[in-house]
């Protein structure tokens, strides 16, 4: 008798109708999706075996990386990227139906990345309206739906307006088109999942801490490790080590499998240079 496949449990940045929820639905249409309030809680749920996978936002095409995700993966846990998911992002301004005729608001609430993606719209349309950061776009939408007596608005996706019964009063308010967010699917074990739109290209994400002697040219040396091996870096950026101003680690995406001979050689050379490398594993790219 076929083993009863227990449903996989997936944590995501909630509540329902966040962009992360939509990404989790795309990646795991038949799993048990469990909403958490913050990104660290999603990641800790994997660490504590409450769930098998976490879906968390990593970077946005307009705003760049989500620092909390990167810093938590670097400083707090060893987890692996088993898949990446890319989602188009459309931001709308929404209000409780009782306030649908307002043309000014006490405040506008949303996730900091969502507020930043709509900076120009907000500056030119609601210049003097306080912008309040919230844990997620859907949390902001849910709060606005529960407080009709306050003349406030939220920024979020169409799904959250429907879910929480809000009226969209300004559509597509993000400043640039082609707005996408990249999400990581995290696990305690290093393996690769099929993703809904993967091709056979594989990426590896590394967190590289330079040697402590702070000698000049170390970044050039690190880049050379990949360059002469023709290992394509699709991304590299620095993040504070939190050991003092000017101390950084680098997060890099390399377009190759970490088990390839060239990548194994790169790991050895980086160690010989005195670098510490934390790998987040290899995964199929999402095209
Ligand atoms: O707030 C949400 O809906 C999220 O899923 C988080 C998040 C993010 O962290 O960037 C995801 C996609 C958008 O860029 C806006 C916010």
Automatic annotation (TrEMBL):
- Pfam families (UniProt xref): ACT (PF01842), PDT (PF00800)
Q: Which domain of life is it from?
A: Bacteria
Tell me the keywords, alphabetical order.
Amino-acid biosynthesis, Aromatic amino acid biosynthesis, Lyase, Phenylalanine biosynthesis
Instruction: State the InterPro entries in the record.
Output: ACT-like_dom_sf (IPR045865), ACT_dom (IPR002912), Chor_mutase/pphenate_deHydtase (IPR008242), Preph_deHydtase (IPR001086), Preph_deHydtase_CS (IPR018528)
> Which pathway features in its UniProt record?
Amino-acid biosynthesis; L-phenylalanine biosynthesis; phenylpyruvate from prephenate: step 1/1
Quote the EC number: 4.2.1.51
Give the EC class as a word.
lyase
- Report the residue ranges that make up the ACT domain in this protein: 207-284
Task: Kindly state which reaction or reactions the protein catalyses.
Answer: prephenate + H(+) = 3-phenylpyruvate + CO2 + H2O
Domain Prephenate dehydratase: residue ranges:
9-188
Is Lyase one of the keywords? yes
Question: What's a single GO MF annotation on this record?
Answer: prephenate dehydratase activity
Q: What is this protein called?
A: Prephenate dehydratase
């Amino acid at each position: 008798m076929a083993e009863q496949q227990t449903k996989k449990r997936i944590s995501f940045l909630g509540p329902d109708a966040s962009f992360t929820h939509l990404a989790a639905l795309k990646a795991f249409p038949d799993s048990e999706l469990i909403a958490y309030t913050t990104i660290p809680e999603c990641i800790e749920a994997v660490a504590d075996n409450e769930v098998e996978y976490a879906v968390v936002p990593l970077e946005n095409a307009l705003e760049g990386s989500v620092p909390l995700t990167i810093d938590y993966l670097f400083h707090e846990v060893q987890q692996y990227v088993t898949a990446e998911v890319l989602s188009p992002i459309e931001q709308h301004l929404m209000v409780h139906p009782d306030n649908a005729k307002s043309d000014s608001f006490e405040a506008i609430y949303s996730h900091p990345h969502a507020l930043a993606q709509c900076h120009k719209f907000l500056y030119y349309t609601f210049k003097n309206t306080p912008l309040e950061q919230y844990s997620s776009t859907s949390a902001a939408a849910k709060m606005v739906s529960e407080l009709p007596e306050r003349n406030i608005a939220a920024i979020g996706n169409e799904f959250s307006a429907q879910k929480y019964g809000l009226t969209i009063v300004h559509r597509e308010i993000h400043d640039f088109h082609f707005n996408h967010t990249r999400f990581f699917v995290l696990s305690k074990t290093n393996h690769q999942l099929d993703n809904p739109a993967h091709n056979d290209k594989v990426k590896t994400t590394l967190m590289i801490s330079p040697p402590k002697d702070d000698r000049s040219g170390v970044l050039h040396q690190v880049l050379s490790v990949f360059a002469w091996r023709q290992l394509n870096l699709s991304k590299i950026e620095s993040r504070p080590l939190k050991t003092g101003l000017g101390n950084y680690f680098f997060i890099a995406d390399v377009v190759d499998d970490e088990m390839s001979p060239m990548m194994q050689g790169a790991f050895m050379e980086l160690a010989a240079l005195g670098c510490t490398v934390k790998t987040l594993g290899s995964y199929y790219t999402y095209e």
